[in-house]
Amino acid sequence: MADLLRGTARVVTQVGEGTAFIVQIPVEVEALPSERPAAPAPRRTRVLVVEDNDDVRESLLAMLQALGAAAEGAPSVARARQMLAVTKYDGLVLDLRLSDGSGYDVARAANEAGALNQGTPAVALSAYHECDAQGDALFAAKFEKPISVARLRSAMQCFG
Length: 160
Hints:
By secondary structure, the chain is an alpha/beta fold. Helices cover 27% and strands 26% of the residues. It is built from five helices and nine strands; from the N terminus they run βββαβαβββαβαβα. The protein has helices at residues 54-66, 77-86, 103-110, 133-136, 149-156; strands at residues 8-14, 18-24, 46-50, 70-74, 91-95, 97-98, 101-102, 122-126, 141-144. The strands form three sheets. The chain has a five-stranded parallel sheet, sandwiched between helices. Strands 1-2 form a two-stranded antiparallel ribbon. The chain has a two-stranded antiparallel ribbon with strand order 6-7. A hairpin with a 3-residue loop joins strand 1 and strand 2. Helix 2 (77-86) packs parallel to helix 3 (103-110).
């Protein structure tokens, strides 16, 4: 996991004292905005994250929520289809390789004629260099995993 997040992991053992596992993962830290008078809270962007890896999905949800989005997660194509049928989203963040299908399947389902989320912008995430010109046309943007907070903020610009 540390390698996936461009970090390191090591073990330090001292006989009779114990063992320490040290994991270091680089993070981006943003400067806090200066104090300003409180403005009315804008409507939160509603985002559906479809990712079958629990840790990755939870990380994406946490980052999106930190960026001000109202984010919900689905672990599968099947669950995403259920959620898309009853909730209107402002944007979709889709893993391309899922255990029961693909992000392409979710994007196609969202854009079916008369679907509640027809026309909802979708952003693809993939740990692999995949190219499917016809399928990629379903996405407003495509990013490599792991995605940084800055790139996720950029992806949210696609959601209006």
